[in-house]
Amino acid sequence: MDKEGKRAPRVHYADDEDRIGSDRTPGGHTRRLSRQSSSSSLSIHSNHTRTIQPETALPITYRTLSIEVDEDLHKKEKAVKREKEKTTVDLADLKWHTISIDELYRRLSLSENQGLSEEQAKRRLGEYGRNKMTPPPSGLFGKIMGYFLGGFGSILLIAAILVFVAWKPLGDPPATANLALAIVLVAVFVIQAAFNAWQDWSSSRVMASIGTMLPDQCIVIRDGQHTSVTALDLVPGDLIVIKQGNKLPADVRLIDVSSDAMFDRAILTGESEPVAASVEHTEDNYLETHNIGMQGTHCISGSCLGVCVATGDNTVFGRIAKLTSEPKTGMTPLQKEILRFVLIISLFIAVVVILIIILWAAWLRKSYPDWINVPLLIVDCVSCAVAFIPEGLPIALTTSLTIVANIMRKNKILCKSLKTVETLGAVSVICSDKTGTLTKNQMVVTDIYAAGEEYTPEAARDLLAVIRSEKNIDTPNKKREDVMDQVRIVSGLCNSGEFDASTMHMSLHQRKINGDATDQAALRLSESLGSVAELRQSWKKSFEIAFNSKNKFMIRLYSPADQRPSSNNTTLLIKGAPDILLPRCNTLLADNGDIINLTEQQRRRIEHVKDTWSRQGKRVILLARKSTMPPFSVNPEKEVLVAARQGLTFVGLVGIVDPPRDEIPEVVRILRGASIRIFMVTGDFKLTAQAIAEECGILSNISMVDEVSALSRETKHGFERRSIVLSGPELMTLNANQWDQLCQYQEIVFARTTPEQKLRIVKEFQARDNIVGMTGDGVNDAPSLKAADIGIAMGSGSDIAIEAADMVLLDSFAAIVEAVQYGRLVYDNLKKTIVYLLPAGSFSELWPVVTNVIFGIPQILSSFLMIIICCFTDCAAAITLAYEKPEADVLLRPPRNPKKDRLVDTKLIFHAYFYVGLLECFLSFTMAFWYMERKGVLFSAMWLKYGNMDPKYDVDYVTEVTNTASSIYFVNLVVMQLFNLLATRTRHLSLFQQPPILNKETQNLLLFPAMLFAIVVVFIFCYIPSLQRTILTTEVPVEHWFLPAAFGLGLLMLDEGRKYCVRRWPNGVLARIAW
């Protein structure tokens, strides 16, 4: 039984060689394909009993491109179905899919071969407008409410209301200080809302500018020439050239499709089953017919030619309103972790407040009724709660992420979501594609092998020139086939590349070619040997199977353009991987044009040339041909594939060089220093991949490279190996023990991999607790890009790869270093912000309230000054930490483990509360009570007195001294926090290694305005007489400015010593407890 007749494999690719072909209509146009597995193995929702992993069935459900990515397609599918029902009525009048192609041309005033003229295009652009959709309503009211009530806004508002109530009507008499506190809380409430609005505007502007950086070009035929235009300038009537990997920029009516052309409509239908393209309509429903390509869908295989019939809001995508708005997203992992921390803090303070209320209600109210009244209780509880919760943290988080997004934009890195930035800091493995990622994607043919001889392109050009001159002189009427001319014909005709009309006046190497890099190199070779335009005019294409990563070859059928209709002479041209095609060749094209049998000696010679070129890092492509008949069955694709399985005539080999990017070896070195393993995953031949990996530095010692035989099928302990090179077929034979061993290698090259093998590589490393980044630019990379923890696409890559990725490198792969560095920086800076906010803003403000309630001493820090510290002095300084530059050792540390390394852990709490917090709190208490002792108010006279002090103490005098002591406590905290700010700037390095000034790489000049702001706030609230009387503050004796400065300097030096010990003894006790 023929192989094609066997049952389809468990996972059946849309581009599989074994697929079943398509029907043909009497009109000669390709119809909808009839696939053997269309309703089973290609569908995630298979009705068969066998199990298929959704991520291994192609096409993958690709992610939609937006700043935040919504991956919940099951929910989207239901929503889309509801919208489709509403939209169907609106689409009932659309008949583009039912009219004939000739009628389509007539209605759109379109020439079949020439397309629109530039004049027509300009006129229609004015008539229909640009190809973009009207943005959804902004929801201004909801946004404004979010600005005011988001973050801790709601807490501030409730606190202000409670303090107003404590002032009036509960105040008896009303305390002016409470009114002032309530006004400050309202002011902070308004300020934080304004800051939220500014931050939203700023981040929106950054993300909008990032969105414009994405390539949005498409190929159209205008005035008979292929030209590249921006998708925004498409107009109805444009002839659009659609190739594998393209995202449709508008709704198109398909007028010519290859037999393997298929579209992924998951973005519109929520279904993962691909749709076979057709020229004739298959359904009366506009949404369901297969001869309409809808905007936002992807061509996952084959190629098509389509006529644009709708743009902008008139497309199906534009009419379904729900799909035009940005998807709703949940919180990012880092935001969830911060929320977790805030909830823990909030729960703790809630417990404290409840205990205070219980103590007051059950004991103080009865035993000491004059000590704390209801208004004072409310103010104490509110102040304690507001002060303890770090209001500056959400602002610092948003600021950090916006700053990093801006830095990413400047480095031409597009991050689609905030989650991407966070994940970068934890990446431990990067699997990189070769072509276009590690290499320049500027392929050039450097060698040709034909008829037993090797040539350079220059030598081949000279040889053809001699042969042509001989023909013209000796035998002008004799058409002697020459092997080099056949190399020119196969490389020029079996090629999906097209010269861009706008660059045809340039030299050959400067011309722009629309097509993949391999086709570009082959097309330039063909053009150098003779005019490709003339060549294509003399041949007529009748059938095509596009190159795909499964088959690894491309087929086109051609017949002479001047051939009589009664003749059916057809030539099959094929170009692809030598290891696939050479076994199918049994004849050879000799130098004189004769076809001779391919001997074993000649086959070995071809293998030797292929291996030699591959070891030199060259991509080797085999060119072959075969005389055949045009397909006539209902299954032409199968017929052509069967014809291509044997009896091919070997024409030649071409060696293509795609040099590594100059910066790649340094990038690999830096990533290795950051304890990130970088592997190559490519579809290229094993020897080629190994050679390029050595040039890139991915393989450090070529003589110590293991093969698959080094992986034992039994459990292996103490396994230590460095480098290994594996091919895709070898991967499929590995068991779990061998994968365990493989995942321990430091240097790996995966060659000849298919999309499902790339996907498995990602899954296997993830299963072993690795955070995997996957880079790629082709259609075959999309499934693994989606499955990876962070998918990284190149800006020059296919639309599908860009859509599937989380991050897009618009310029160079070297930008990955910046991306990882700033991904780690976000995490570092947030830890610094928390460490800075906790000692004074929560710990040192809690104890004055606790000692007041439990031990009956006066509240040594007033509630008003508590709010000033947490909402003004500390908050401003904390935000400046978001602007900190990366520490010099940030790329010398191993990546964090998200399961173990939490943003807030016991080490950080210990440092913030029991190291810095305890010192600041103790010294502030000491300074305040020392001042009171000096003024004659003994500590023992206040201890456990609850306001019932000895009659010898004048109440007004004690109150006055207490107010001054409160101001001293306030100044002591503020000044010590200035030094704590300098200490907190670095986690491991000395302040002198990371100076805040005089070094552009490390400086943060915003620290000093924040310090000055804190001092100014102190002077405003402690030195203006009218405010002193209102909020009960006083001037601070001068010695109480210098003493906290000395304490702060001591704290800074103490922390410098701690960091030195951490660096000097990385395995010591201090290093183990360092935050």
From TrEMBL:
<dbReference type="InterPro" id="IPR059000">
    <property type="entry name" value="ATPase_P-type_domA"/>
</dbReference>
<dbReference type="Pfam" id="PF00690">
    <property type="entry name" value="Cation_ATPase_N"/>
</dbReference>
<feature type="transmembrane region" description="Helical">
    <location>
        <begin position="967"/>
        <end position="984"/>
    </location>
</feature>
<feature type="transmembrane region" description="Helical">
    <location>
        <begin position="179"/>
        <end position="198"/>
    </location>
</feature>
<keyword id="KW-1278">Translocase</keyword>
<feature type="transmembrane region" description="Helical">
    <location>
        <begin position="863"/>
        <end position="883"/>
    </location>
</feature>
<feature type="transmembrane region" description="Helical">
    <location>
        <begin position="375"/>
        <end position="408"/>
    </location>
</feature>
<dbReference type="GO" id="GO:0006883">
    <property type="term" value="P:intracellular sodium ion homeostasis"/>
</dbReference>
<dbReference type="InterPro" id="IPR001757">
    <property type="entry name" value="P_typ_ATPase"/>
</dbReference>
<feature type="domain" description="Cation-transporting P-type ATPase N-terminal">
    <location>
        <begin position="95"/>
        <end position="168"/>
    </location>
</feature>
<dbReference type="GO" id="GO:0030007">
    <property type="term" value="P:intracellular potassium ion homeostasis"/>
</dbReference>
<dbReference type="InterPro" id="IPR050510">
    <property type="entry name" value="Cation_transp_ATPase_P-type"/>
</dbReference>
<feature type="transmembrane region" description="Helical">
    <location>
        <begin position="338"/>
        <end position="363"/>
    </location>
</feature>
<dbReference type="Pfam" id="PF00122">
    <property type="entry name" value="E1-E2_ATPase"/>
</dbReference>
<keyword id="KW-0472">Membrane</keyword>
<feature type="transmembrane region" description="Helical">
    <location>
        <begin position="834"/>
        <end position="857"/>
    </location>
</feature>
<dbReference type="Pfam" id="PF13246">
    <property type="entry name" value="Cation_ATPase"/>
</dbReference>
<dbReference type="InterPro" id="IPR018303">
    <property type="entry name" value="ATPase_P-typ_P_site"/>
</dbReference>
<dbReference type="Pfam" id="PF00689">
    <property type="entry name" value="Cation_ATPase_C"/>
</dbReference>
<dbReference type="GO" id="GO:0005391">
    <property type="term" value="F:P-type sodium:potassium-exchanging transporter activity"/>
</dbReference>
<dbReference type="InterPro" id="IPR004014">
    <property type="entry name" value="ATPase_P-typ_cation-transptr_N"/>
</dbReference>
<dbReference type="InterPro" id="IPR006068">
    <property type="entry name" value="ATPase_P-typ_cation-transptr_C"/>
</dbReference>
<dbReference type="GO" id="GO:0016887">
    <property type="term" value="F:ATP hydrolysis activity"/>
</dbReference>
<keyword id="KW-0547">Nucleotide-binding</keyword>
<dbReference type="GO" id="GO:0005886">
    <property type="term" value="C:plasma membrane"/>
</dbReference>
<feature type="transmembrane region" description="Helical">
    <location>
        <begin position="1038"/>
        <end position="1054"/>
    </location>
</feature>
<dbReference type="InterPro" id="IPR023298">
    <property type="entry name" value="ATPase_P-typ_TM_dom_sf"/>
</dbReference>
<dbReference type="GO" id="GO:0036376">
    <property type="term" value="P:sodium ion export across plasma membrane"/>
</dbReference>
<dbReference type="InterPro" id="IPR044492">
    <property type="entry name" value="P_typ_ATPase_HD_dom"/>
</dbReference>
<dbReference type="InterPro" id="IPR036412">
    <property type="entry name" value="HAD-like_sf"/>
</dbReference>
<keyword id="KW-0812">Transmembrane</keyword>
<dbReference type="InterPro" id="IPR023299">
    <property type="entry name" value="ATPase_P-typ_cyto_dom_N"/>
</dbReference>
<keyword id="KW-1133">Transmembrane helix</keyword>
<feature type="transmembrane region" description="Helical">
    <location>
        <begin position="908"/>
        <end position="932"/>
    </location>
</feature>
<feature type="region of interest" description="Disordered">
    <location>
        <begin position="1"/>
        <end position="52"/>
    </location>
</feature>
<dbReference type="GO" id="GO:0005524">
    <property type="term" value="F:ATP binding"/>
</dbReference>
<keyword id="KW-0067">ATP-binding</keyword>
<dbReference type="GO" id="GO:1902600">
    <property type="term" value="P:proton transmembrane transport"/>
</dbReference>
<feature type="transmembrane region" description="Helical">
    <location>
        <begin position="1005"/>
        <end position="1026"/>
    </location>
</feature>
<dbReference type="InterPro" id="IPR008250">
    <property type="entry name" value="ATPase_P-typ_transduc_dom_A_sf"/>
</dbReference>
<protein>
    <recommendedName>
        <fullName>Cation-transporting P-type ATPase N-terminal domain-containing protein</fullName>
    </recommendedName>
</protein>
<feature type="transmembrane region" description="Helical">
    <location>
        <begin position="140"/>
        <end position="167"/>
    </location>
</feature>
